[in-house]
Amino acid sequence: MKLFQVDGPVYRFFARMWDMIKLNFLWLLCSLPVVTIGASTVAAYTVTLKMLNDQEGYIGKEFFKAFRGNLKNGIPLGLVTLVAAYAVYLDFQIFHAVKEPPLIILIMGIIAVFVFLLGLIYAFPLSARYENTLVCTLKNSWEISLRYFGRTVLLFVVLAVELVLFFFTEWMFVLFALIGPCCLFLTVSGFAMYIFGQIEKDPDTVVRK
Q1: Cα separation of 128 and 12, whole Å?
Q2: In 35-148, which residue ranges form alpha helices assigned H by DSSP?
Q3: N or C: which end of the chain has fewer CB within 10 A?
Q4: H and E: helices and strands count for the chain
Q5: From the CB of residue 79, how many other CB atoms can be counted at a distance below 10 Å?
């Protein structure tokens, strides 16, 4: 039956799952030093963007090639992300630490999370696809989020649903440990690829160097 042949859907499904497991492992491995998490994430996005067009080739080879090539830009981007995430975390910690916290602290925290996500959601796929400075990458990510605001909000919803499903049961959490992060990267890549295609028709509208 063609269903179970090498070029059949069952084989392709499990082959893709194995690729995701390998990519997830490589991303985790290269993120362990923490300082390299940005370069590791850019490398993972380089592979997932190619996956969407079936152009990824050998996962390990593609990942390490992208990882080495993005150390210079990926490390600062990762550090900016970590600092921004920590600042948001501190805001919520302050809210919980105060006995009678003013509502403004919570509101500021929610706004900070939203701005944080808008500013960085496309930064890593942008860095994976285009050569640019850190400042321009962050600026482009912010402008793309605003220009395609509805699509970006939909992306947030899809990512939230995926996270809820992954943490729904213990077995799903095991699946998250195997492919979860890279599954999220692939989802963002799918939305980003459409937007990049629109931008590349008229790059002067958003993407700047």
Answers
A1: 25
A2: 37-51, 59-69, 71-97, 103-120, 123-129, 134-147
A3: N
A4: 9, 0
A5: 15
pLDDT tens per residue across all 209 residues of the chain: 555 555 656 667 778 888 999 999 999 999 998 999 999 999 999 999 999 887 777 899 999 999 999 999 899 999 999 988 887 777 777 767 776 667 776 677 778 778 888 889 999 999 999 988 999 999 999 999 999 999 999 999 999 999 998 888 888 888 888 898 999 999 999 999 999 988 888 755 555 55
Buried b (16+ CB within 10 A) or exposed e, 142-156: bbbbeebeeebeebe
Structure tokens that stand for 165 in this block: 């499903």
* Residue 183 to residue 115: CA distance in whole angstroms: 23
Question: What's the pTM?
Answer: 0.87
DSSP H/E element including 34: none
**Is the CA virtual torsion 15, 17, 123, 188 positive or negative?**
positive
